[in-house]
Design goal:
By secondary structure, the chain is α/β, with parallel strands linked by helices. The chain has ten helices and six strands. It folds into two domains: 134 residues, Rossmann fold; 67 residues. The protein has a six-stranded parallel β-sheet with strand order 3-2-1-4-5-6, sandwiched between helices.
Length: 223
């Protein structure tokens, strides 16, 4: 598959009648929050910390358990579930300082004005996700908020397929920032647009072969 470059000037997007949003790294700019949180765990175990966003993006990926393994966590010595709980506690102590990604309000309002329904599909635990949306003041933009029933961030594909069964007749697009978002869109049989600047680097995103935009403004202004 030939990689697609960043959204080109004057490039127009296909018209969709439903927007499915990823949350972390697409709506919420929590990359540094994630780095700071996992660095506490790494330091506590005498493992090398992540020095920069560039290094983080190069190693991050789904499933999250494998990402932890690449960082040096040894799950033969401690259970993954213990590490996940520690990380969530660190993350929750910091995430209220995380800003929205650039252009989020503008994009949400644009699609609302176009009367295009929007929903969120996230690998975050649903209860935690709902609280974050309320704190950010953007919960009312979304018809549905879909998250996992646990904190282990495994995969949101099952949620996606269930959503697609309920909305089989819509022309939807998935907006995300990781390869997993593309894979989920593929499983649903819908298009995907990836936004760089989130949790994975541009060169990795481009290998998916779908449009990759520098930011949300570059996406919705071509809609």
């Amino acid at each position: 598959m030939i990689p697609v470059s960043l959204c080109r000037p004057n490039q127009t997007m296909k018209k969709y009648n439903y927007i499915l949003w990823d949350f972390n790294g697409t709506i919420l700019d929590d990359v540094q929050t994630g780095i700071d949180s996992v660095n506490v765990l790494l330091s506590d175990r005498g493992l090398p910390i992540i020095p920069s966003k560039e290094v983080y993006r190069a190693v991050f990926g789904f499933p999250i358990r494998d990402y932890y393994g690449r960082l040096g966590f040894d799950f033969s010595k401690e259970p993954y579930e213990k590490v996940a709980v520690e990380w969530v506690n660190q993350y929750l102590s910091r995430v209220q300082e995380a800003p929205l990604c650039p252009g989020v309000f503008e994009a949400l309002n644009f699609f609302r004005e176009q009367k295009i329904p929007q929903s969120i599909l996230s690998a975050t635990k649903l209860e935690m996700l709902q609280g974050q949306l309320q704190n950010l003041g953007i919960r009312t933009y979304f018809e549905e908020v879909m998250g996992l029933d646990n904190i282990y961030a495994t995969s949101k594909e099952a949620l996606a397929l269930s959503w697609k069964e309920r909305h089989f007749d819509v022309e939807a697009v998935m907006i995300g920032d990781t390869v997993h978002d593309y894979e989920v869109a593929q499983a649903m049989g819908i298009d995907c647009v990836l936004i760089s600047g989130g949790h994975q680097p541009v060169d990795v995103l481009e290998k998916c072969g779908c449009p990759v935009c520098a930011n949300l403004h570059d996406f919705y202004t071509r809609f």
